[in-house]
Here is the input.
Amino acid sequence: MPILDREDDVFVLDLGAGENRFHPDWIAAVHAALDEVEKADGPRALVTAATGKFWSNGLDLDWLFAHADRHEEYVVSVHGLLARTLSLPVVTVAALQGHTFAAGAMLSLAHDFRVMRADRGYWCLPEADINIPFTPGMSALIQSRLTARTAHEAMLTARRYGGTDALAAGLVDRVADEDSVRRTAVETARAQAAKAGPTLGTIKARMYASVLETLRDTAAPLG
Amino acid sequence: MPILDREDDVFVLDLGAGENRFHPDWIAAVHAALDEVEKADGPRALVTAATGKFWSNGLDLDWLFAHADRHEEYVVSVHGLLARTLSLPVVTVAALQGHTFAAGAMLSLAHDFRVMRADRGYWCLPEADINIPFTPGMSALIQSRLTARTAHEAMLTARRYGGTDALAAGLVDRVADEDSVRRTAVETARAQAAKAGPTLGTIKARMYASVLETLRDTAAPLG
Amino acid sequence: MPILDREDDVFVLDLGAGENRFHPDWIAAVHAALDEVEKADGPRALVTAATGKFWSNGLDLDWLFAHADRHEEYVVSVHGLLARTLSLPVVTVAALQGHTFAAGAMLSLAHDFRVMRADRGYWCLPEADINIPFTPGMSALIQSRLTARTAHEAMLTARRYGGTDALAAGLVDRVADEDSVRRTAVETARAQAAKAGPTLGTIKARMYASVLETLRDTAAPLG
Here is the structure.
């Protein structure tokens, strides 16, 4: 389960050591961590890291198949997590040490910056291959953070991007060796810790107003 | 006139050996080809190619001047072709062996990917030079597929991009020798043939929802 | 105060030799210059230059603090200047010989193209540092002219971009030596002088319709 730690001005949220899929309890734990980050005072920033082979593999499809009647509620909660991360009033950096797939990839895009391991692990939106169309809110999020060309290729072809390709396509901002992914992310976050506060929150909320509105529109198609 | 052929999983639509302008009959023939591609079953993708010096020179201005009273209906039909191509539920690749101008250039942007001949032929939006402003729908289409910088330069300066410049500006995804433009496009399309189907259609329709709405809004300015 | 000059087809507007902040009188003088450019006939283009260490340092905060009761009216007038520049029916080029900050940077983005001095001077949006969130209209303008990645970094981190970095990030289109910034801008403008006219105005107005609407929406948050 996600665990929050603090190194001076930088909170480090570790998403876990498994596939780190979005189980309802996992989502609740991430929200609790974000609550703590938001409630804290003074300069601060957030790094979202993980341990092992995966950063996050996205939706918890096992749980979802076992709770088909809660499908709509579940998607609303995933949208809520993406929207909250996108508009968090502190600078956020995703430290992608492992595979970052599907809704996991979307959660990484909801961060302000991404550092990815250079030599192993893939960033991938497999939805076109597994026959799950992006919801309008997910589509809006992805398109708002990428060039039209990269969004089109990533969303239609389900291409798996290694670190170097992900950097070239603008999916991530930096690549690093396995040993330095988290440290690079922490340094990036620390340099922006003084930005934390309501002004930053307003800037993000206005930049992504239409994305946030689509993510929070429970009347839009959810599947 | 446009002719549809099939090479295994890849349909190849040849737009013609002339200027391949959008005469009403030509538009109808393209639609008939797209009908066939849509109706087919199983893995499939589309390459839109042409023969000779032009891929397409855009609107059929001769026909339009001779039928001024049908101007509005004509623009609606052009918008319809662009919208349908943009949301086709198979992966589409434009094989630009020759000049690709004006509405021809827009039709190329409605494809998922573009391969352009490296050493001859231009991609150009001459509208600012010939005093025909882009309709809001055309503007939305062009802007949705390019970086802001490339769209601005292409739409305001009517610059003619050769293959290498078009690649650098992100107007096309690949360049190739004269002999291999079509083959490269077919290979690109074949690799994505398994994506064909309603999920891909939904992904495209949601990504470009606002563009499609503007293209189909017959109340918007058409000239 | 701003002074308008003409070199054949190219109008050169010099924003001044000071910090060239947006005092109401300064704004009025810029509008008077734009009136003259708009009213002129025939081929023409506009270069907006300045003299000294600054191109423009943005809002006149001294004036604004002394006239707190006119805050809303002031922001409306700044929005109006940005909107008018963005939709001017002639090609516009900003010749950035010195610091270009905050609303000054936004005014530069409202031009069609930017040439920046390579070796000195910064382009910067310091709003996140000085606790002044971008208005929705300013946010829309900035985001409409930059890649998502550059807009995100520039707006959230208040990074100061020197000429070379600004070129790499796509904030400017060209860099030049101190001596040739203005000349390069004039040459760029002259090459597009024949484009002046209502078609160009319509193309710009349609490309940036939603930005212009947001800038002109006096009901939107202004602070």
User: Anything to note?
Assistant: The mean pLDDT of chain B is 97.
